[in-house]
Amino acid sequence: MNVRGFSFEEILGEILKEGLFWAALGRPSEVIPFLRGKLLNNGYSESTKRELADLLRELEIFYNRVACCGRVEERHMKAVKSFQRDIIAVISFGKA
């Protein structure tokens, strides 16, 4: 059996999608504590942490909107990909 590793970007994308589906089921804050713990306690600079905290607040607001909708639509999937790109950009810039 050949098992390949997954990149940070792939794992983050899956976690964000899982949060989207939890939101559609009425639990919009299900993955936010996990993401806060992993992203904000990872040794990044204070400015990177602030930017990540802002993105996570926006993500939580987004998940709350999805919870009100009660279903996942294509536009929600696109928004999740945008959040993924933004988080990766902030982290990548913070490491530079």
SSE inventory with pairings:
Layout: H1 8-24, H2 32-40, H3 46-69, H4 74-95
Helix pairs in contact: 1-3, 1-4, 2-3, 3-4
- In DSSP terms (H or I, runs of 4 or more residues), the helix count works out at 4
Mean pLDDT: 93
Radius of gyration: 14 Å
Low-confidence stretches: none
Sheet with the most strands, sense and barrel status: none
Give the domain tally: 1
User: How far apart, in Å, are the first and last alpha carbons?
Assistant: 37 Å
Descriptive report:
The chain is mainly α. It has one domain. Helix content is about 75%, strand content about 0%. The protein is built from 4 helices and no strands. The chain has helices spanning about 10-25, 30-40, 45-70, 75-95. α1 runs parallel beside α3. It is globular and about 35 Å long. The chain starts with 7 loop residues before the first helix and ends with a helix. The model has no long low-confidence stretch (mean pLDDT about 95).
In a nutshell, what does this entry contain?
The chain is mainly α and about 100 residues long. It has four helices and no strands. The chain has one domain.
Question: Keywords for this structure?
Answer:
mainly alpha; 4 helices
